[in-house]
């Protein structure tokens, strides 16, 4: 037997929680499913200084506040690792890996993105043995050590600044000679005495002694020289990938796997909406995930009313 709802939101990051809040506040019967703790990537973020209303707030604290706001409107909230979504007339049939089936006329996808791997030798072998994708989770293991961050975007620089609070030094290894990160983060990083930068460097291997990471090998793209940088830890932030595997068969993804929507967060399948980092777009921020969540929640309500009027 399937559990039936008006709206199912998959993913309880800032966007998913906002969409659920708007739908539940509009009196729809809402289920939120997530395979991890609510908050999504906010849980792996130390300090957030670009979410209005808070001069600065810890990621887990903002997650808790958003969850508390959502739960005021009493949606169902369940653990669920979604495996497949199928269409049965107007209903979306959602199956999770623990063999639960949920049905609703409206599905809101807010599954976000995950860290891209670098794909060099040593990366998988030393994952958890010096290679990390989460500074907030693992920084404490590198107290007073020399660590390396690979990448030049917001994540690399933000997490590099965080690591510098504990590590002896943080070397940012970037493949170009300028950072992609927001100017305000760049300014803080360049002013940080513990942070160093290696430019035009293509990382080619993560080297270890069998137990732990000991160095990285990179190629200087200007001179072609192969170089080695001793390091106790390698934090990899080279971009993100969409978490859209369960939605592949719906025909709503672009060729990179991101979900395509219109301005109302509608996909081309009636009753399926998507928002936040999982969408095909340029800017991935908590603030715009929340904005898109409100749009999706309201659009879901409008869709529900239309459906009711037609039946
Ligand atoms: P990103 O913006 O895509 O940056 C990825 C970085 O990794 C770029 O500097 C890129 O180099 C580099 N890179 C990509 N592939 C590489 C490879 N194979 N080898 C070496 N370097 C490689 O990813 P992100 O920093 O994870 O951010 C993801 C999204 O979240 C962005 O929209 C970002 O703005 C947002 N975000 C925002 C905040 C905030 O507002 N505080 C914090 C974190 C993330 P190039 O520059 O040469 O392309």
Instruction: Give the strand order of the largest sheet, numbering strands 1, 2, ... along the chain.
Output: 6-3-2-10-21
Please tell me the total number of domains.
Answer: 2
CATH homologous group name of the largest domain? FAD/NAD(P)-binding domain
Distance between the termini: 24 Å
- The CATH topology of the largest domain corresponds to FAD/NAD(P)-binding domain
What is the typical, i.e. mean, pLDDT?
A: 97
Strand segment count: 21
Class per helix and strand makeup:
alpha/beta
Note the run of SSEs as H and E.
EEHEEEHEEEEEEEHEHEHEEEEEEEH
What portion of the residues fall into strands of 2 or more residues?
Answer: 25-35%
Task: Categorize the overall geometry.
Answer: elongated
Annotated CATH architecture of the largest domain: 3-Layer(bba) Sandwich
CATH class of the largest domain: Alpha Beta
Largest sheet: 5 strands, parallel
Radius of gyration: 21 Å
Helix amount, in percent?
10-25%
Poorly predicted sequence stretches spanning 5 or more consecutive residues: none
GO cellular component, one term: cytoplasm
Subunit structure: Homodimer.
EC number: 1.8.1.9
Family: Belongs to the class-II pyridine nucleotide-disulfide oxidoreductase family.
């Amino acid at each position: 037997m399937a559990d039936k709802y008006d709206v199912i939101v998959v993913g309880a990051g800032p966007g998913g929680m906002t969409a659920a809040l708007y739908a539940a506040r509009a009196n729809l019967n809402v289920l939120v499913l997530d395979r991890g703790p609510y908050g999504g990537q906010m849980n792996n973020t130390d300090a957030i200084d670009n979410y209005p209303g808070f001069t600065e707030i810890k990621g887990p604290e903002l997650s808790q506040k958003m969850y508390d706001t959502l739960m005021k409107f009493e949606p169902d909230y369940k653990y669920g690792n979604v495996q497949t979504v199928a269409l049965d007339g107007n209903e979306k049939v959602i199956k999770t890996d623990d063999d639960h089936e949920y049905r609703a006329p409206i599905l809101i996808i807010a599954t976000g993105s995950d860290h891209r791997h670098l794909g060099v030798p040593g990366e998988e072998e030393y994952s958890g043995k010096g290679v990390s994708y989460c500074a907030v989770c693992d920084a404490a293991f590198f107290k007073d050590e020399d660590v390396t961050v690979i990448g030049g975007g917001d994540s690399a620089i933000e997490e590099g600044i965080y690591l510098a609070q504990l590590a002896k030094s943080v070397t940012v290894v970037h493949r170009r000679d300028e950072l992609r990160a927001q100017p305000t983060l760049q300014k803080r990083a360049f002013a940080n005495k513990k942070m160093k930068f290696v430019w035009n460097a293509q990382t080619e291997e993560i080297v270890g002694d069998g137990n732990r990471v000991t160095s990285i090998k990179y190629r200087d793209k200007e001179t072609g020289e192969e170089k080695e940088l001793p390091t106790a830890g390698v934090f990899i932030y080279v971009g993100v990938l969409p978490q859209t595997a369960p939605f592949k068969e719906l025909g709503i993804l672009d060729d990179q796997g991101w979900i395509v929507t219109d301005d109302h967060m509608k996909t081309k399948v009636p009753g399926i909406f998507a928002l936040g980092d999982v969408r095909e777009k340029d800017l991935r921020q908590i603030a715009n995930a929340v904005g898109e969540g409100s749009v999706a929640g309201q659009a879901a309500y409008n869709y529900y009313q239309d459906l009711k009027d037609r039946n």
